[in-house]
Write a structure and sequence with these properties.
Layout lengths: L8 E6 L39 H6 L5 E6 L3 H13 L6 E6 L3 H4 L7 H10 L6 E4 L3 E3 L15 H5 L10 H24 L8
Parallel strand pairs: 1-3, 2-3
Antiparallel strand pairs: 2-4, 4-5
Length: 200
C-alpha cells in the first residue's frame, strides 16, 4: 500500500506484542521485555533485540504524512488523524499509536493504563512526532526531551510493568542509552529535514 501510493490511512495499534493470541513476542516488542514466547531467565533476558523502528520503515517510502500518537494524548491523536485524512489525495498516510495492554505489560491495574501510556512519552520512550512532506516535527511534550533533566526517569515507566520485573539497574541504563540515542537521532533529523539540497 505504501509502495503503490494508495490514498489510505493506515493506523497501527501498537501494544508491543501479539497480545490477542497469548502475549507472544513480535518485532514491536521492546528490548528485555518478557513474553510467553520469550521468557526471561538467567541466560536469556527476555527479548534481546531492540524494538523495530516502524516509523523509519514507513518514512523510507516517501509518503506525504506519518506520525506517532499515544492514547494518553487524545487531542494530539485526533488532530493527527484529521491531518492524515486531509492528505489522502496525495497518497497514503500512517499513524503509529501506542496503546498499553494491562495483561501483556502487567504490574498495574486497568485504570492505570493512561497513566502508564503517558509515562511512555514523558520519559522519552515513545516520543510524539510527525513526518509531514519530508519534514520531521517533534511534538509537545516531546520537544522538551533534548534536556534530559526535564524528562521523567525511564525507571518509572519500566518498573511499573511486570514484563520488565526481572531487569537489572545496568539493563535499565542500557534502555536509557537506547532512548537517548533515538531522541538524538530524531533531533538531528528534525534539524536537517525540509532543508533544500544545495543542488536543487
Amino acid at each position: 500500500m505504501l509502495e503503490r501510493g494508495h490514498g489510505v490511512l493506515y493506523v497501527l495499534y501498537d501494544n508491543e506484542a501479539y497480545m490477542n493470541t497469548g502475549i507472544q513476542r513480535s518485532g514491536g516488542t521492546p528490548k528485555f521485555a518478557k513474553t510467553t514466547t520469550m521468557p526471561a531467565g538467567t541466560v536469556i533476558r527476555g527479548k534481546i533485540q531492540k524494538k523495530k523502528d516502524i516509523m523509519s520503515i514507513v518514512i523510507a517510502h516517501h509518503i506525504p504524512y506519518a506520525a506517532t500518537a499515544n492514547v494518553a494524548y487524545p487531542i494530539d491523536l485526533v488532530n493527527k488523524v484529521r491531518k492524515a485524512l486531509s492528505y489522502l489525495d496525495e497518497g497514503p498516510a500512517f499513524i503509529h499509536v501506542l496503546a498499553p495492554c494491562p495483561p501483556g505489560w502487567g504490574g498495574f491495574p486497568d485504570e492505570k493504563m493512561i497513566e502508564i501510556a503517558r509515562l511512555a512519552t514523558e520519559t522519552g520512550y515513545f516520543p510524539l512526532y510527525e513526518w509531514d512532506h519530508d519534514r520531521l516535527i517533534i511534538n509537545p511534550p516531546s520537544d522538551m526531551y533534548m534536556d534530559k533533566k526535564l524528562r521523567k526517569p525511564l525507571r518509572e515507566f519500566v518498573k511499573a510493568q511486570s514484563r520488565w520485573s526481572h531487569i537489572t539497574d545496568e539493563e535499565i541504563k542500557e534502555l536509557e542509552r537506547d532512548v537517548d540515542d533515538f531522541l538524538n537521532y530524531l533531533w538531528r533529523l528534525s534539524m536537517s529535514s525540509g532543508v533544500s539540497a544545495p543542488y536543487s
